[in-house]
């Protein structure tokens, strides 16, 4: 279960990195297009449409990134809870082993008497 959680965290992290890379590329494209407009070159209808498409895509990618970040937070919380439960279980197991060992020693002492 922990491995599954880690795989999900890794997957979410990879998606987040891809989204960040896409956002950076889009920001660079916006800067370049803004420079073209400032230079007075004017935009054709296709370029104007591309800008709108890029801005829309940027919004979608940002929304997806936010969702992935939220998922990563939930997965980390789940992993922390699972780790804590595993540690508690390990402590209980160790206590049980100690109790068994004590009982075995008592049995051995009584048999020796």
UniProtKB/TrEMBL annotation:
The entry's keywords: Coiled coil
One GO CC term, this protein: cytoskeleton
Residue stretches of biased makeup (Low complexity): 98-113
Region described as Disordered: spans on this chain: 81-113
Record-linked PANTHER family: CILIA AND FLAGELLA-ASSOCIATED PROTEIN 58-RELATED, CILIA- AND FLAGELLA-ASSOCIATED PROTEIN 58
Name of the protein described by the UniProt record: Coiled-coil domain containing 147
